[in-house]
Amino acid sequence: MLYPAIANELIERANHDLAVRQQLFDAGKLSGGYDPDMEAVHLSNARWLQTIISQIGWPAREQVGEAASQAAWLIVQHAISLPDFMKQAFALMNAQKQTRTIDPVNLAFLSDRIAMYTDRPQSYGTQFVSDEQGRLVPYQLDGSLDQVNQRRRQLGLNTVAERMAQLTVEQNKTPTAADRRAERESYDAWRKRVGWITA
Questions:
Q1: How many CB atoms lie within 10 A of CB 122?
Q2: Across-strand partners of 138?
Q3: Mind telling me which InterPro entries this protein's record contains (predicted)?
Q4: Torsion of CA 48, 124, 167, 42, to 10 degrees
Q5: Of 159, 54, 70, whose CA–CA distance to 110 is shortest?
Q6: Residue 129's beta-bridge partner residues?
Q7: For residue 119, which of 55, 25, 197, 178 has the smallest C-alpha distance?
Q8: What is the distance of C-alpha 37 from the center of its chain?
Q9: What pTM does this model have?
Q10: Angstrom distance (rounded) from CA 192 to CA 116
């Protein structure tokens, strides 16, 4: 490992992110849109990571170890208020996968998340949304379900249906139609504000 201090900071920041998320979840604050306390953690982590990337490139396993490299990906995956940073990190990871150890599952999740926020179909079925009845469904897929499941199998992931079943168990309530409408309006307003969409 080349950068142990950076590795420690990455892990601490990712752990803090998850701890704040759990606190907000327990307080029932994660179902009404993007909580400002959660966004503040994500922005702080992302801005710090931007500085690190400018110094050492993508923090891959060779630079910071496996746990810290996974933490770096988590920070980028949660940097949803910084579209340009997410896209740049994805491009950097893709560019460096020939020379550094980049987890292909991380690339798949990040690719799908960017696709979802930009209204494009996802390739790996990692992102889920609520349908008109409030049921959890995969966000729009690029190709048939069989094609997506084949891509998932190549990465060692379970099927879309299996993952959806896992997430459904974790879902704590079914929103009303009014809740879903308000959530969608809030989501679209947020995407415009941070720059994922323009209209």
A1: 23
A2: 128
A3: DUF6624
A4: 10
A5: 70
A6: 137
A7: 197
A8: 17
A9: 0.88
A10: 14
Q: What secondary structure, in 3-state letters, does the chain show? A: CCCHHHHHHHHHHHHHHHHHHHHHHHCCCCCCCCCHHHHHHHHHHHHHHHHHHHHHCCCCHHHHCHHHHHHHHHHHHCCCCCHHHHHHHHHHHHHHCCCCCCCHHHHHHHHHHHHHHCCCCECCCCCEEECCCCCEEECCECCCHHHHHHHHHHCCCCCHHHHHHHHHHHCCCCCCHHHHHHHHHHHHHHHHHHCCCCC
Question: CA 107, CA 124: separation in Å to the nearest integer?
Answer: 10
Determine the distance from the C-alpha atom of residue 93 to the mean position of all C-alpha atoms in its chain, rounded to a whole number: 15
User: Whose CA is closest to 70, among 81, 83, 58?
Assistant: 58
Encode pLDDT of 14-60 as tens digits. 999 999 999 998 898 887 678 999 999 999 999 999 999 999 999 99
Q: What are the structure tokens assigned to 199, written together?
A: 């209209």
| 33 close to 175: Cβ distance less than 8 angstroms | no
Question: Per the structure block, which two tokens stand in for 29?
Answer: 């604050």
Q: 70 CB contacts (<8 Å, ≥6 apart)?
A: 14, 103, 106
